[in-house]
Structure formats: C-alpha cells, structure tokens
Amino acid sequence: PMSGAGYSFLLFEIVCVVLLTASLLHHYGNWRRQQLVVTGVTFLAWQFCFLIVFILPTDINCTFYEDCLMSNVSGLEANGTSAPACREPWNHIPRAFLVSFWRVIYWSCQFLTWIFLPIMQSYAKAGEFNVLGKVKASLVDNALYYSTYLLIFAICFIYVATRPDIHIDFAQLRVIGITASNTWGLVLIVLFLGYGLVELPRTVWSAGCPGESLKRAYFRLAKVNSELIEHQEELEDLAAEAVQLAECVPGPEHPLAANARTVAELAESSGYCGGRDAGLGRGKPTASSIAAARRRLNEDEDGGGLTAKRLVKLHCQLKKAIGLEQRSRCLLQEAYASAAFLEDIESNRGSRLHFFRRGEGDFDSESGGLLRRLLGPGVEFYWKCHARSWLLRGAACFLLAASGLMLWCECTFFIKWPVLTPLALLVQAGRGALSVQLICLLAIGYLCACTYFTVFRLKLFNYFRLVPNHQTDENSLIFSGMLFCRLTPPLCLNFLGLVHLDSHLASGLKAQTAYTQLMGHLDLVAIISNGVNLYFPIAILLLALASYFRLGSRLLHCLGVQQFISSDDELTSDLLEEGRLLLRRERARRSRGAPAAAARLAAC
Under CATH, which architecture does the 213-275+284-357 domain have? Predict the structure, then answer.
C-alpha cells in the first residue's frame, strides 16, 4: 500500500504542476479575452504533459526498489541465502496505482492530440456559418493528418500480422497503436531536438552580448514592422472585398444575406486596418483597396457573384488575417521595448557616471519600472551593464555542456555493454536516492525545453507562436497543447532508453517502469526499433551540426528570405539601419508626449 509520505509527495507534485501550468498559461494567454473552453482545454493539455515529466522520476525510483526485491528473490531461490534488505523509498507509490495513473494521463493526451484539439482548432478557423458545416470542414482539414497516422499503423499491423511468432490480440493492437503514435512523435522530436540542443545555448549566449543582441533587435524590429504592413494591406483588401460582397446582396430576404452581414460585421470589427506605419492609420478602406477588391471579384473563378463558397472562403481569410494583424502589432510593441532596452544598455556600458540613464521615450513602464524603483540607478547600472551579461554567458556555458551530454547519450544509448551513456551510469550508481529523481527531472526538463524551444522558432510555424504578456492567440494555445501532448510521451520514453531503464535495452534489469509497462517496447515492430536505434541518433547529430553551422538560415538567405546572418551583409545592414530609424522615430514620438501610437500598439 502507498505510505502517507507517498500520498503527500504525489499531492505536492500535482499541486506544483497545477500552479506551474496556471502561471504559464496566465503569462501567455488571456482568459478574460479568450473563450473559456480554449483556456480550459489548453490548461488540461499542458497539465497532463507536465505531470508526465514530474511523476516519471518517482516511477524510476520505485522501479529500482522493485528491481532490488526481484533480485533478492532470485538470489534466494538460486543460492538459498538472503540478500541485504532493500530500502523502500520514502515516497514509494505502488505499481498498480502508477499503471492506472499513466493509463489515464496517456490516453487523455492521445485523445486531446489526435481527436479533440485538431478538430477544435480547425473548427475555430473554419469559415462556415453553422455547426455542421464547421465540423465537416474540420474533418476534411484533418484528413491528411489522420491518414499519416493510419498509414504508420497499417504498416506496423501488416508487419506484426506476418510474423508467425506473434499472436495478435487486443494487447498487441494497443501496443501497435502506441508504437504508431510514438513513431509519429519521434520523427518530430528528431527535427526539434537536433535544432534546440544547439540553438538554445546559442540564444542565451547571444542575450549576454548586448552589442550583438542590439543588432538582432534592430533586425527583428524592421522585419516585424514590414510583416505588420503586409498584414495590414491584406486585411484592408479583404475588408474592402467584404464591403463589396455586402453591397451585392439584393435584400434582407436573400438566403445569403445573414452570412454576408456576418462577414461585413467581422470586417468592421477589425477597424479596416488601412494604415501603413506601425499600426497607425486605422480607418475605412481606401479607394485603391476597393478598386482592387472589385478586380478580384470580377476575376474570381466563381464569376464575381455572391455565392456561399465565396462567403465561406472570405470569412476564413478574414479570421486568419485579423489574427495575424493583431499578433503582429503585439510583436511590434515587444520588438520596440526590447530594442530600446538593449540600446539603453549599450549606451550606458561606457559611461563613467555608474548609474543607469535611459534614452528618450518610456518603454519599460510595465516591467522595468518595479526593478528600477527597487534597485536604484546605481545597482541597476551594475546589474544591466555587467552582472547580467556574465550571468547569461555562464548559463549558456552550462546549457552547452548539458547539450553535449544529451547528444552523447543519444548517440550511445543503444549500446548495452559497455555502458557509454553518462546519464545511465549516474542513475544506476544512485539507485533509489532522492538525488536521482532530481537528476532525472532536470534531464527530462531540459530535453522538453530544447524540443519546445524549436517549435516556436521555426518559420514553418510562424502562424503559431507563444507570445508573452497575455498576447498569445487562441489558435497558438490550441496548437501548443496539441504538440505538447504529442511529443511529451515519446520524449519521456526516449529518456528511459537514455538511462537504460527500458528492460529490452538494459542488461541485468529485472523490473520495468510502470510507464514502460503501459507504453510497451518498440522491438515488437523490429523495423521501427532498429530504425530508432540506428537512424535516430544519426539524424539528431546531423541536424545539430546543421544548426551549429546555420545551414538552414544560410539557405533561406540565399533564397531571398530575410535572415540575420552577418551585419556586413547588404540586406542585413539595410534592415539594421531601418530598425534603428524606426526606434529613433518611436522614441521621438513618445518623448513629445504623443501616446497615440503606443496606445494603438497596445490595443492587442
């Protein structure tokens, strides 16, 4: 039975996870503005994934205790002598409880990531005007997504069915389904982990170099400003098209009148976004945008008339355009504050006054004002101009060492003897100790941090992005919950292989974790297990090398996509100068006491 300490520790971990999830969701989301169901489902998805990360080390500790008991029983039966007594962990949780716990958590994650969240996300983006139409569009939108999973499942099923030594029953089908899901997740993990293990330490190191960070901030400011202008132009054109379609309605009795009115009201709620300068100039569509909308209506494949198909398409485009425009305004506000912060640091580093002076314009009234009042200008100067840089560089060196350790473990975990994985040696040497739980928690947490760091840095996922200060949109929250639930279970299974706690990888381990008992072993499908053992570490290593040399950014730069490569590059230097001028104009605007621009930017 579970001891009182075990219950208390489990309850403590659950409370910690609830508080961590709530604080992160509060930091990124906005429950007052967003739909309650989105906040609730995202909270559940994040909480389930964090529970896996926090509870798995306890499962590992309990497995060592059970392995000790099984070894003692085997020794007694073989030699007739009793071995030293096994020390029960103070937070021991019975296996039956852990298996039931993992079953609830894992299948809840699978339901969310494969069924509920994808349909919910597509439902929110759909342009149809009734529930049945939105559900149908959601299923069609996810058809390719589901077909990839079914293809992997079919391959695994056919392979197992052709093996005479395996009898297919419900338990085998369950393992095949889990294997297919894990295979899907492992492909993404290879992509994300190889990039994150290199880029996360490099990002922290760059943050500790104010001069380099300032150049990147100028570059980002110019890039976000140009993206905002593009989104405003697109939204203005769509709003003009909505106006033209509304004018095509013969009367209120027309069957499409209600749908046309819905689209027109959505366009009006956007403010028509006709500006061309950093979120300024909202108003009605211009004459040029209306003329362009008329040309699109006449050139459209539907003949320019008012049709249900056109309204659905325009409704969907308006939803997406409004979300992109609002997010770009929020990102521009963040880019202004970041560039101003780094510019102030750079201007104060060579000062002989030894107190922090700010440039014109107030950008840090929300976050930096409290720090300024608590520290004072003298302490603030030494912290921002000296201590902060050294602390970030030290943290980057520590993260670099952790990344090197993880890469080595990923490349050697499949070697049973001799054991070359440092994490496995460390965990095996401290069997049952509380320090082992802490080491496992830190290792799993770092793997998750590198993996999820990548998700929101890739341009491929630029539409979905976690933006701090309550500025993340609903689609990005749903997408993050979907990815967390999809990646966390196979990532934790991969970690058990790294520390040789998969009984089919480790030698001499008699017990297996309750997590492995639920998830099964990849060697049921040999073609997948062999592929994971051989190609998984090679792929991660190759992607890490490609990330180190920035091959992806260099390729995109050669194709004309704006990427920060070097300040000596002509395109990059032009964007740096543009960002510097944008910040100078914004500082002058704010110092003149003209808060209109800031107010419009803050209306996220």
Answer: Orthogonal Bundle (1.10)
